[in-house]
Amino acid sequence: MKVLIFVSALSLVGSCATKRYTEKIQDIKDNIKFEDVNQINNFANTITADELSKNVYAFSSDENQGRKTGTLGHHNASSFLKKYYIKEGISSPLGTDNYYQNIPESFFTNEIKNSQNVVAFIKGSEFPNEILIISAHSDHLGTIDNIIYNGADDNGSGTAAVMEMAQAFKIAEQKGFGPKRSILFLHLTGEEEGLYGSRYYTEHPIFSIENTIANLNIDMIGRVDKLHENNPNYIYIIGADRLSTELHYISEAANKQFTNLVLDYKLNSESDPNRYYFRSDHYNFALKGVPVIFYFNGEHADYHQPTDTADKINYPLLEKRTKLIFTTAWYLVNSPKRIIADKR
Ligand SMILES: [Zn+2]
């Protein structure tokens, strides 16, 4: 009898706690509402497969010699990005025409020369001090034995996605729908060498880390892995729920409202042996307590091979995935309240 009472008391506690948790999650979900869906769709639709394709081809072209950090090829790629932002009328947070966060040679090991993160900025209208960072690494493996590693998926795809989103947010601003919070578009260097660019940024932030509301990081989103050959309408979401419950549900709500991709959480499992959560630039932001999402298509036969070329990218799929990130970002910068990192 005693045992029985004990058990039922325990199960009572258990069910109350569960109910409270369920209610909390329901509250979070109920609070996520996209205002003006048509308007958001209008701006999302400025992100097109055609423009993404144009930028992936240009960025991963042989001219950039595989973009190894600190080489002429990577400097050329950085210059390409800078010219793009100037052309689009998107400013730098560092002032006038200085789009480079320079990283000295001494910060690198392995004989890597000085390099740079490329930064562009749209200022928020209501909460300008709160910053969303949308990032993608710009470097790749370079030229080895005279063979160019173009890195079209890794990470021409993420780079082109950032460029298109910046343009879409700029068009929105010009039409009177500028973001309420600020957005930093961040092209990171030195990722392939060991996440140098993101570590440099988080150690020398342009805007304080405390005011950085989230980091959406993109590394390879233009291809399909073996597991999804028969259903390419997917993207792996990694890290979204690790620091902020809310961020995970915002990402789900954006997808449900706008893109209807299958959000695959397999690689987000803490027991996943690949440990992707630790392997791209978002991790340096997560280490500082900034909620992150890492968008990734998974590995494929051309991963880190000279055959990762622009002709193999699925551009309509790249467009759809970019729209998911754009609409998630839209919510994060326009929601009435800054997201909470409840699991920090
Ligand atoms: Zn990469």
TrEMBL record:
One of its GO terms (biological process) is proteolysis. InterPro entries: M28_fam, Peptidase_M28. Residues 117-326 form the Peptidase M28 domain. It holds the Pfam family Peptidase_M28. Signal peptide: none annotated. Gene3D superfamilies: Zn peptidases (3.40.630.10). SUPFAM superfamilies: Zn-dependent exopeptidases. GO terms for molecular function: metalloexopeptidase activity. This is Peptidase M28. The lineage of its organism: Bacteria, Pseudomonadati, Bacteroidota, Flavobacteriia, Flavobacteriales.
